[in-house]
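Continuing the batch. This is chain 6 of the set; chains 1 through 5 are on the previous pages. Same settings as before, nothing changed between runs. Recording input and output for traceability.
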Amino acid sequence: DHTWTDGDVLKKHWSITGRAGIVVDNAMPFALAGYKRADFAGTELDGWVAGGGIEFALTRNLFLGGEYRFT
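Output for chain 6:
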């Protein structure tokens, strides 16, 4: 157990996720899930990531999208 203080610093973090969606016209709504790890004040924490988003094809090679991740 660790008591968090204002001086604690997030040193590094990473996640690996996969996503799946269905293309509808020029949009692709998707869900994502994966694994997350962080080094916070010398304590390594790990857990899961879940979220979703949507991408829009503006042209054949240009996409615009947004996503939300809960960790």
